[in-house]
């Protein structure tokens, strides 16, 4: 088709698409614009531009579509399809004019893609090919900058140098950043000078002047972001930034007083609190932490510790003070920061010094002994009233009260020692024995006579000095034996000695025969010079028949001053050494000898003892046999019994007259013996029962049946029982109560007499009550 298609735009309503005119300052022209390309043999549309946010009172003309072939006779029909066709954008199908019917917002939809076509109204065939074009919504500055990440808060150390970065703030603008300056922002500071500044393009906040936290700890900075590069007529937004200054150690401790005054009683115990001091530090946290130190010799008497929570210095007593010795102390004390900042060391050490004046207050103190303890000596055996020693105590106060002494805590010691209450001299009141107790621990108290509550105690250790008052003796009893065939000069025993006394140079004992035994021609004593001695034979051979034992007195002398002697007697027993049991026989003989018995007498005693023992055993055996013969068949009698009952039962139907379980005990069932054939016995009893009972075939059949069951049943226990029901006899007023003699019917019987018999016939009355009722 050789036609030209053109788009006609009304110049009064279109905005030429020229780059030099795309400026927001010209948006008051309120003119849309489009780009038109005319192409031979068809049409090609580029794009239209429509300003956003236009307030429409009526549809706004955008442009017109027109075909060169249109004769304006109404045969051409223009059709518009695509985004917003028919709702936002409309087209006149006869003239091809396009209108926008709604206010457009670029931030919601920046462009619309539409398609245009011209068809023959009659044939509905296209007269021009379909062409696509775009209507762009042109941006205007209708959004203000916003800080989406606010509110902002930052922390920076105090005294930071100028130019230190604090925080960066960022604002956003909803306008098109690619068109014009609507979204181009510029930052400025409205509040916070001269301490802070902001970079105009980046929004970085920096320090412009050093700040001290102790002067002001928190700052509020207001930052403004303005579009249109800050030009007049643009929109702006603000944000508040809270900036906190963190602490650094830039302040040293400072005492508020040059002198502190405190008092302490001389009676105060060690570790008592005297008082508190405190140095102030403007810093906080660890930067304000400090230690207190006492300088000089006073550090030996006083100490100071730091309360980590309050940073107070607590002054405590390290050693006891004495009012009479020194009444005032001047304590030099320092407060030193624990942490230091090298940047401020040039300003001097971070510490401060003060003086603590401590006054000692007088107190009524207990007596003071001249020594912490006393050690005294006295020889054992000293006479009563002998002087042991003396103790001294004084009143440390200016009053100088007299002192009274006494021994406490032991009644036993009070019997041995006595103390003078006025001068403190100690004497003994009883003889002392070192071997009983070598040391005595005495507790002595000193009490002020003017104030008895002031009491002090001291320990007195009394050592009892040894004197040689115990003679040496044998350490044990010696059992000495000599063989009959012993040779002369043979060693038969080595002896030693002990002494209860204490020798400074060590014990040394001398052994000899006693004076009365010097002419003894049987044994000799040899001193070994080492506190032992040997007993030697002085002849060949000994005879037991002539003399069974010898008594040898030995004299022992110690080396004490003066020396003491003792005589100790040894017993030497003569033994027959021809057999292996000679030593044992000798010991036994020695024992008998010590008891004063001969061998013959010992044999006689043993023989009598054996006869008595045999007689006693024989009596026990005879008594045991007699007990066994009294009841030889007793187990069998327990196993098989015929039990008779003299009470009257109710006949063969009375099954509760006898309880056989009483016979079935564990004791009886332990022994399992062969059953005796008791058929003959039962038959004999059966015949006896026939003599006293009725001759009833039923009764005989019942007895035989029970006998057969008992003989053939292997599960029943190995014993039998027979129940007999005898007649009462002619002397009974009530007559027979047995049912064996009853007739076939009880209708004619009268049982009224049962009620007259009392409680014993109550059960029978209940049993015959139905028969009585039937009769009535």
TrEMBL record:
Q: What CDD domains does its record include?
A: Cadherin_repeat
Output the Gene Ontology terms for molecular function: beta-catenin binding; cadherin binding; calcium ion binding
Q: What is its main location?
A: membrane
- Which BP terms from GO are recorded? adherens junction organization; calcium-dependent cell-cell adhesion via plasma membrane cell adhesion molecules; cell migration; cell morphogenesis; cell-cell adhesion mediated by cadherin; cell-cell junction assembly; homophilic cell adhesion via plasma membrane adhesion molecules
- Which Gene3D superfamilies does this one have? Cadherins, TCF3-CBD (Catenin binding domain)
Report the locations given in the UniProt record: Cell membrane
Please report the record's description of how this protein sits within the membrane: Single-pass type I membrane protein
Q: Which UniProt keywords apply?
A: Calcium, Cell adhesion, Cell membrane, Cleavage on pair of basic residues, Glycoprotein, Membrane, Metal-binding, Repeat, Signal, Transmembrane, Transmembrane helix
GO CC terms: adherens junction; catenin complex
> What role does this protein play?
Cadherins are calcium-dependent cell adhesion proteins.
Name by which UniProt lists this protein:
Cadherin 19
Q: Which organism is it from?
A: Chelydra serpentina (Snapping turtle)
């Amino acid at each position: 088709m050789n036609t030209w298609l053109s788009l006609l735009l009304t110049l009064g309503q279109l905005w030429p698409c020229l780059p030099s005119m795309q400026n927001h300052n010209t948006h008051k022209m309120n003119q849309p614009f489009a780009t038109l390309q005319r192409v031979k043999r068809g049409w090609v549309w580029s794009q239209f531009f429509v300003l956003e946010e236009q307030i429409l009172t009526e549809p706004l003309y955008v442009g017109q579509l027109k075909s060169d072939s249109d004769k304006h006779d109404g045969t051409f029909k223009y059709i518009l399809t695509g985004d917003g066709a028919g709702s936002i954008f409309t087209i006149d199908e006869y003239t091809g004019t396009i209108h926008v019917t709604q206010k457009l917002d670029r931030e919601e939809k920046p462009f619309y893609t539409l398609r245009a076509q011209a068809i023959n109204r009659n044939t509905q065939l296209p007269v021009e090919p379909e062409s696509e074009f775009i209507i762009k919504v042109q941006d205007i500055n209708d959004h203000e900058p916003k800080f989406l990440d606010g509110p902002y808060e930052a922390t920076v150390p105090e005294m930071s140098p100028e130019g230190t970065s604090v925080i960066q703030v960022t604002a956003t603008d909803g306008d098109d950043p690619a068109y014009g300056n609507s979204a181009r922002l510029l930052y400025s500071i409205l509040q916070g000078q001269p301490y802070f500044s902001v970079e105009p393009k980046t929004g970085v906040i920096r320090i412009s002047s050093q700040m001290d936290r102790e002067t002001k700890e928190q700052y509020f900075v207001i930052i403004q972001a303005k579009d249109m590069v800050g030009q007049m007529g643009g929109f702006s937004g603000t944000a508040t930034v809270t900036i906190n200054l963190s602490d650094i150690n830039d302040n040293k401790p400072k005492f508020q007083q040059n002198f502190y005054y405190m008092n302490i009683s001389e009676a105060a115990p060690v570790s008592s609190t005297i008082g508190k001091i405190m140095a102030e530090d403007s810093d906080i946290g660890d930067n304000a932490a400090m230690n207190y130190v006492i300088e000089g010799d006073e550090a030996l008497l006083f100490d100071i510790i730091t309360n980590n929570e309050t940073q107070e210095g607590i002054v405590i007593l390290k050693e006891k003070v004495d009012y009479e010795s020194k009444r005032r102390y001047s304590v030099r004390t320092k407060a030193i920061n624990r942490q230091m900042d090298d940047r401020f060391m040039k300003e001097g050490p971070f510490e401060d010094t003060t003086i603590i004046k401590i006054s000692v207050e007088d107190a009524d103190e207990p007596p003071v002994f001249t020594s912490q303890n006393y050690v005294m000596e006295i020889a054992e055996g000293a006479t009563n009233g002998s002087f042991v020693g003396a103790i001294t105590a004084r009143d440390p106060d200016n009053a100088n009260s007299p002192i009274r002494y006494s021994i406490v805590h032991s009644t036993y010691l009070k019997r041995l020692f006595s103390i003078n209450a006025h001068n403190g001299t100690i004497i003994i009141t009883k003889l002392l024995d070192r071997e009983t107790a070598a040391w005595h621990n005495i507790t002595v108290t000193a009490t002020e006579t003017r104030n008895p509550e002031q009491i002090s105690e001291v320990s007195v250790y009394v050592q009892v000095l040894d004197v040689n008052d115990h003679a040496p003796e044998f350490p044990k009893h010696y059992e000495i034996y000599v063989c009959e065939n012993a040779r002369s000069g043979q060693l038969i025993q080595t002896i030693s000695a002990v002494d209860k006394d204490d020798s400074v140079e060590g014990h040394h004992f001398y052994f000899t025969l006693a004076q009365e035994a010097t002419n003894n021609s049987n044994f000799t004593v040899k001193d070994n010079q080492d506190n032992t001695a040997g007993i030697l034979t002085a002849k060949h051979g000994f005879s037991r028949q002539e003399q069974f034992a010898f008594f040898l007195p030995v004299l022992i002398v110690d080396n004490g001053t003066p020396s003491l002697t003792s005589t100790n007697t040894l017993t030497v027993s003569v033994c027959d050494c021809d057999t292996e049991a000679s030593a044992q026989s000798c010991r036994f003989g020695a024992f008998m000898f010590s008891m004063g018995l001969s061998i013959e007498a010992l044999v006689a005693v043993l023989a009598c003892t054996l006869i008595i023992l045999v007689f006693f055993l024989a009596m026990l055996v005879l008594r045991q046999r007699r007990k066994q013969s009294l009841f030889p068949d007793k187990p069998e009698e327990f196993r098989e019994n015929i039990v008779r009952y003299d009470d009257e039962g109710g006949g063969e139907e009375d099954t509760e007259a006898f309880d056989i379980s009483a016979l079935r005990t564990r004791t009886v069932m332990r022994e399992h013996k062969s059953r005796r054939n008791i058929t003959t016995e039962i038959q004999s009893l059966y015949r006896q029962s026939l003599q006293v009972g009725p001759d009833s075939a039923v009764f005989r059949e019942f007895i035989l049946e029970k006998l057969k069951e008992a003989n053939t049943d292997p599960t029943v226990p190995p014993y039998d029982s027979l129940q007999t029901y005898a007649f009462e006899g002619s002397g009974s007023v009530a007559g027979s109560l047995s049912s064996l003699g009853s007739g076939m019917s009880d209708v004619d019987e009268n049982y009224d007499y049962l009620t007259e018999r009392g409680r014993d016939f109550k059960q029978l009355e209940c049993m015959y009550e139905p028969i009585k009722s039937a009769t009535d």
